[in-house]
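Input record (one chain):
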Amino acid sequence: MTLFGNNKPVLEIKGLLVGQFDPKVDGFYKNVMPFRFDVKKNRTIHVSIRSDAPVDAAIVDGKGATASHVDRLTSSETDVHTGNSREMSLVLGVYPGEKATVDAEIRMDKK
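The corresponding structure, as predicted from the sequence alone:
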């Protein structure tokens, strides 16, 4: 059974560790992680995010403008209109030294 009914999945993330130490990246932590996904114009996407620790999350449109942003969430469900975008991104972040395991699901209305 799906959480949002009869919608098309555009992004699913399960058990992602944000804030993992990595000496190969600037700052030594993977504390900001972007995920691009395709959408159709003038639709609604349904965003569901669950985390075991506070995480910042943003939905960014194809031009780089923030369509939705929530700080320090552990559980959130929201709807975002795609406008004229054909692609959008989910950006997850934590402060350096913090960690969070995140599950995220984004679904788009079929019409």
